[in-house]
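Hey,
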Amino acid sequence: MPFHRLLLPALPIAAALAAAAAAAAALLPCAARAGDGDIDPAFAPTGNALPGWERLYFGAQDEHGVAAARNADGSIIVCLSVPGGTDGAKIGLFKLDANGHRVSAFGSSGQVLKDAALKTVTDMTIDAQGRIVVVGTTPGPGGTENFGVVRFNPDGSDDTSFAGDGGVSIGFDDTSGAIPTYYQDLARSVATDPDGKVVVAGSIFSNDGNDVRWGLIRLREDGSLDARVAGRYAQNQKAVGTKVLRLPNGHYLVVGSTLVAADDADFGARIVKPSLTVDSSYSDAGSFAFDVAAGDGSLSDFASDAALAAGGRVVLAGVASTRIAANRILVLADGSGNPATLALDTSFVGGGSPTYAYNYVSALSSTDVDPGHGTARTRVAVRSDDSILLSGRFTSTSTSESSAMLTRLRADGSEDADFAALLATRFYQAPTGAGSASTDSGFDDVLVDGGSRPLLVGTSRDNTGDMDGVVTRLQSDLIFADAFE
């Protein structure tokens, strides 16, 4: 049975909260202190949109933002998903310097367009050697899909030292029996080890939908398979994987969602050892719910992203019945200093409501929710003061216009009224090529640039009618560099 058929529909938002959200959207930049959260005009001052914004595209087609990553020198790689590939999607890469200008020495005039036989493009990172690693899905046997991994040299050229031609397809299919079992393997997140190994997390679905697990693979520097593991966050529960983080001593954390019951999904996380093994007792796993026994409780809780914070803490972000949601967990070490167990961080007060103890749930809904695969598009970054940034897309019910949105929480998880007076959320519409505001904008990724300024990658409709990638940087009230991006 497909994952989405097991979940309840989204809970309605109270009329008063909807009105508050509409009022917040109307306030836009005026809600915050002067400068804090405003578009930084020093970013891309000569770009192809208004100062502070850069539109990224390869022609009159629908490009979509995927991810951004920063090089050691402060330059930025932005990854887009571009239609028209042999199997569905091409990889689009742009390199910008720290101030948003195109770096012409990268690829062709600062950009790379690559057809790597991917069906989807879902994440990107930069390894310690400056190489660019992109993941997505690629066609597998029997009409299924596999994890697809593509690596580029720092200058944007194909890295032929990786699997011979720069790309590899890896699946979790079981061909040991007389009747092989093929899985839909959906890559969602990529990280790299200091030695150049590539770690990819995602989900594996059996064709009948009865076996749903998170999957993790690790590739050697040459692209060959090093190890792989699939698992759950709780015994006998279906699970999807959406994010992988590196933990101390070579351990990893897989984050996603776990199906508690036929109508109840929660955030889930699990520690994976350097050997890519997990504890059979599930002592290395945790399930983190936004549910309450009665009242305004949420059942459809999907985690889509996670970010490291100070003191062995991890912020989990996603949606609670389509509403932007976050909490924080503790990664507790064993006697040898290795990550061993997970616990909810009770110092994270969230909204301060008994309804959502130790959790934050916004009044605002995200339009980028994929219940079919138990995922959302909320993205998270943590600043140097441990304040939290949650990015996404909000669609007005009155105008049907979509705005990119950014919510800022204090370190304790409460809404930061210094960022915006109402709901701690600011709304942005990217400028079109003609200079007018787009009616359809959303953020797809957020990271913290130098000085704790949010750098955001998104997708926005142009005045010509097609979708483009966009990138912008916001001003910040912090003046010191961020150490926990």
